[in-house]
Amino acid sequence: MPVQQSTDALLREFEEHHPRALARAISLAEAGSAGPLIRQVYERTGRAMTIGLTGPPGVGKSTLSSALVRKARSLGKTVGVISVDPSSPFSHGALLGDRIRLAEHFLDPDVFIRSMASHGHLGGLSGASADAVLLMDAFGLDIVFIETVGVGQSEIEIARLAQTTLVALQPGSGDSIQVLKAGIMEIADIFVVNKADHPMAGQLRREIRSMMEMLDFSGWVPELVATQALDGTGINELWGAIEAHVAYLNESGEIEERRREAFVQQVHQLVLGRLERRLARSISQVALCAGIDPYAAAEGVLRQFGAGEESDDAALPVGRPRAAVKGLA
Amino acid sequence: MALDRPLRVIVAKAGLDGHDRGAKVIARALRDAGMEVIYTGLFQTPEQIVQTAIQEDADGIGLSILSGAHMTLFPLVLEQLAAQGADDIVFFGGGTIPPEDVEELTKRGVRAIFTPGAPLQEIVDFVRRECGKRRAPAA
What is the distance in angstroms between the Cα of A183 and the nearest Cα belonging to chain B? Predict the structure, then answer.
């Protein structure tokens, strides 16, 4: 099979369900050139259940993914896993190691795993994650798990991409103030206290509960599930919580809202990506003019885009769908 | 508006062989050279390694073997690559492998085998050059 192929040839193989075609398609997305293919397959999307999994490094995200994949496969579902690890900001290289925990699924033809590097993208995902989800969805996979890089307190993009967001936390990782201030706490549809055999697991659960009591929820109230991903303890309960959330989304009609958010977010990213590359060129040209102050330079660049002072906000529609979600660049 | 996409390389350990210091050193060197390295972890089968390479759309596979089973495992990976129509992936390796076996394996289709003492830069240059060629039509 040639490395380079036309969109038509790739589309044909994609439709014939060759895993290699899906793999190539995701590579195209990473190169920023999957547009023509996605336009062809877009009408087949919207069927997959998308589940995001986020949490600090070492909490057990990959091990949880693996346990959830096992559960989904026992129910006969086909599964995609997108696993994001950080790129080096210096070499732009990356060491992608999430697969190690997923090895038991490597030979299952109904599980497709793709490791992605974040490529300097700061939201905990990769710029191409949304495309990869669409492609797996169009490929016909029933469930797509999206595992973020190990996140801190503000990488919350996953909540806009996935229908159901799991936030995994581990005992002994900080006091109640940490739980209160963490930005990722606000995006959880389900809290997972992993490593629940840890002596401090009970305390973490109490802290999460008391934090939740201080918040106002309209509609879905996040569930809290304790797991030991390594031996599968609590995975059935976690699956039950995921199903309950999906049922809630469907019954309340919120599923449409979530899809719209994901759509708006992706359009935003695409437009921003293109503008950024054009901007970089304009800015580097302006920067060559000697003796100009930064504000005059910025004004000059904005004029080139037909957006002078004060008009720029109106020119760029920005999606801010979920309440209390701040800090997304 | 194609963006530069880093080369993607699988670093694999196969069979009953728990010594992965070398594999990790190589993984790190390739990462520092700007590539995306997917490490499979220990004890993989040739089938698992080739399936991983296909799903990850890898440009290359580097297999590290220190167990003495290289005359079995390298040919099995070659066989799998051919069976899956994936033999365009650059397959190379390393380990404690005698010169006569290196010759035999490269004759059979392993693109290069690096033995103890091989300079990291030489390995990085090889991967960049050969995997780069695989991508060349895009450039």
Answer: 29
A4 close contact with B: CB closer than 8 A: yes
Among B106, B114, B139, B100, which residue's Cα sits nearest to residue B64? B114
Q: Which residues of A touch B40 (CB under 8 A)?
A: 99-100, 103
* Cα separation, A228 vs A231, whole angstroms: 6
C-alpha distances (whole Å) from A71 to each of A97, A156, A165 are 22, 26, 17
With contacts defined as CB-CB under 8 Å, which chain B residues touch A14?
Answer: none
Partner residue facing B138 (CB), from A1, A4, A106: A4
Is A91 a member of any domain?
Answer: yes
Residues of the domain holding A269: 257-315
Residue A316 DSSP class: S
Q: What averages of pLDDT result for each successive group of 10 residues across chain A (329 residues)?
A: 73 94 95 93 94 91 97 98 90 90 94 92 82 97 94 76 92 67 80 94 89 84 95 97 97 92 89 85 78 85 73 44 35
Kind plus residue range of the DSSP H or E element containing A10: helix A7-15
Q: Are residues A107 and A189 in the same domain?
A: yes
Asked whether residue A264 falls in the same domain as residue A201, the answer is no
CATH assignment of the domain containing A75: 3.40.50.300
Structure tokens that stand for A291 in this block: 């003796």
**What class, spelled out in words, does domain B8-133 have in CATH?**
alpha beta
User: A275 and A138 share a domain?
Assistant: no
In a domain? residue A323: no
- A126 vs A117: CA distance, rounded Å: 6
Residue A216: both structure tokens together: 């106002």
* C-beta atoms of B51 and A107 within 8 A: yes
On chain B, the residues whose CB falls within 8 A of the CB of A280 are: none
Global pTM? 0.88
Query: Which chain A residues have a beta carbon less than 8 Å from that of B12?
Result: none
Using CB atoms, pick whichever of A23, A31, A97 lies closest to residue B56: A23
CB contact under 8 A, B1 and A2: no
